[in-house]
């Protein structure tokens, strides 16, 4: 089953060790920030449920890792959230399938 994401639009890149990285950024007015945070939580909950206990440094043998950042701009007033998900080929394939990422 594919889950459509409303705010997170991922770009994909690979390194020379067959690890992939999905980066997404969403800038919204503060009243929409909880919706973006909910999407990020959904993706991370899926990752943990699908690959339990496998989060950590990829170069140390983990299957996936993530980084979430939140910045606020005042003029215009926007919240920008970024999510970077890195993983093995198996993790990336499963993420693509679950969330319909190309």
Regarding quaternary structure, what we see is single chain
Helical content stands at: 25-40%
The helix tally amounts to 2
Shape: globular
Question: Kindly state the mean pLDDT as a whole number?
Answer: 96
Structural class: alpha+beta
Number of strands: 4
Distance between the termini: 15 Å
What is the topology, as strand order, of the major beta sheet? 1-2-4-3
Structure notes:
It is a single chain. This protein is of the alpha+beta class. Helices cover 28% and strands 35% of the residues. It is built from two helices and four strands; from the N terminus they run E-E-H-E-E-H. It has helices spanning 33-50, 89-99, and strands at residues 10-14, 20-28, 64-74, 77-87. The chain has a four-stranded antiparallel β-sheet. A hairpin with a 5-residue loop joins strand 1 (10-14) and strand 2. The protein is globular. 22% of the residues are buried. The model has no long low-confidence stretch (mean pLDDT 96).
């Amino acid at each position: 089953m594919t889950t459509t994401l409303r705010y997170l639009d991922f770009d994909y890149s690979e390194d020379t060790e067959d690890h992939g990285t999905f980066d997404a950024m969403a800038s919204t007015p503060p009243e929409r920030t909880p919706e973006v945070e909910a999407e990020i939580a959904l993706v991370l909950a899926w990752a943990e449920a699908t690959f339990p206990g496998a989060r950590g440094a990829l170069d140390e043998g983990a299957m996936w890792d993530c980084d979430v950042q939140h910045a606020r701009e005042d003029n215009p007033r926007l919240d920008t959230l970024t999510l970077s998900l890195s993983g093995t080929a198996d993790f990336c394939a499963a993420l693509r399938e679950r969330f319909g990422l190309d």
